[in-house]
Amino acid sequence: MCRALQDKFIREGHEVVMAANPEHIEQMMVPDRKLDMLVTGLSCYEDGRDNDITAGPDWQKAEALYEAGVVKSLTAVQKAFPYLEQGMLKRICYLNLSSGSINASGARDSYGLYMSACAVNMQVNLLYNRMRKYGYTFRIFGMEEEGDIREQASAAYWYFTENRSVDRESAKHTDENRLVMRNKDGREIPF
Known about the structure:
Blueprint: H1 2-11, H2 25-28, E1 37-41, H3 59-86, E2 91-97, H4 111-131, E3 137-143, H5 149-161, E4 181-182, E5 188-189
Parallel strand pairs: 1-2, 2-3, 3-4
Antiparallel strand pairs: 4-5
Helix pairs in contact: 1-5, 3-4
């Protein structure tokens, strides 16, 4: 999914800095560089399936998913923060699983995968509560486990790059003042 999303950004004329390891972000950025948007999150979910529910959860796989989705995402935000501060948009976007929603998941297997996705949702919620007052906006795109990756990448691109509605009469109804996960159809996924 990340590769397809990167390709979409490039086709739309954006400069993209991709770092598979968040530790490389500082190496890729030059002094006084401005970053408008960071895209991070649980992007390796295809490795997280554990369909043998009789054997119980695979805790090593769960730990690896937690490291990839939660720890590396937070590290990416920390490393990119100085560059986001200099940018105009100050947007942090997360790729996650819509089935990682506590409200929307009916999963009976792959518990480590969905626990990691749920932890990513909580991480975004905590960051949003802390950083929104400083002008940061947030997006969570809920990837579907089935379906065309290019179609989902295109939907994620448009969701990440569009400015949401601003309701000057009621700030609580402004999309920028709410944390929302949306899927490829633009539907709000409760989490």
